[in-house]
Write a structure and sequence with these properties.
The strands form three sheets. Strands 1, 2, 3, 4, 8, 9 and 10 form a seven-stranded mixed sheet that branches. The chain has two domains: about 1-75, no CATH class; about 85-235, Beta Barrel (OB fold (Dihydrolipoamide Acetyltransferase, E2P)). It has about 240 residues and is an alpha+beta fold. The protein has helices at about 5-30, 35-45, 60-70, 90-100, 150-160, 190-195, 210-215, and strands spanning about 105, 110-115, 115-120, 120-125, 130, 135-140, 145, 165-170, 175-185, 185, 200.
């Protein structure tokens, strides 16, 4: 029996290494393929597809197949690449407007801050994230600067002139309405966390774990500075 121990251990180590590589390349694929993130958001949120159906019945195997499949090269002379432009097409508004039938408040947004938007006359603080206060200072090398406005700039650039749909999620401790808000299939909170200008609130959700780890790995936004997460100012509370 003793002679079989080492080969078994080597097999377990090899399996663990393969699993880690599988996860790493899956995350990398999500980072580098906007259309895939869009598809994943569609599956998770149950947002209708273009033909009126949903992808809610897809299995994990289906999702992994999309991650590791070879991207289709489109003929630029015959077919528009609308699905590959990260929802920066009019179709995003059509997807957003369809959310109204499932209880979302939808409309042209007014940006209130880096984690708050007004939609349909209702102000929403973005669910599940925290951002720095406007006077929060970041340090990059020898440079010290106010980085609290970066979330606002990132959100403004991302939304542009597109519509936003927000699903009400109750109220925070100050009585402010909380919402999970989307542009097309893209969650605004997830976008800010991925860009590195917001942190996930772990006491509320773990939905943004993946994108936060990607932001840390790429030193995006705040992660490229010397900010201390333990003293991070939660501007949403």
């Amino acid at each position: 029996m003793a002679k079989n121990v080492k080969p078994q251990k080597r097999g377990m180590v090899a399996a663990l290494v393969l699993a880690c590589l599988f996860i790493f390349f899956g995350l990398l694929a999500l980072r580098t393929r906007p259309a895939l993130r869009q598809h994943m958001g569609q599956i998770i949120s149950g947002v209708p597809t273009a033909d009126g159906g949903t992808n809610a019945g897809q299995t994990a195997q289906d999702v992994l197949g999309h991650i590791f499949s070879t991207p289709t090269v489109r003929d630029q002379t015959t077919a528009p690449a609308a699905a590959d432009d990260d929802v920066r097409q009019p179709t995003a508004d059509r997807v957003t407007m369809a959310m109204a039938s499932r209880g979302a408040i939808v409309g042209a947004p007014r940006l209130l801050s880096g984690n708050a938007v007004e939609v349909g006359g209702q102000a929403f603080t973005l669910w599940g994230i925290q951002i720095p206060s406007t006077n929060y200072q970041c340090t990059t090398g020898s440079r010290q600067w106010f980085c609290g406005d970066e979330a606002t700039k990132s959100l403004r650039d991302f939304i542009g002139d597109r519509k936003v749909g927000c699903y009400p999620k109750g109220q925070d401790l100050n009585g402010h309405a909380i919402g999970r808000c989307f542009v097309g299939y893209i969650d605004l909170g997830s976008h800010l966390v991925e860009e590195g200008w917001a942190l996930q609130q772990p006491r509320i959700t773990n939905d943004y774990n993946m994108v936060q780890e990607l932001a840390k790995a790429h030193r995006a936004g705040l992660w490229g500075t010397d900010f201390d997460p333990t003293t991070f100012v939660n501007n949403a509370d």
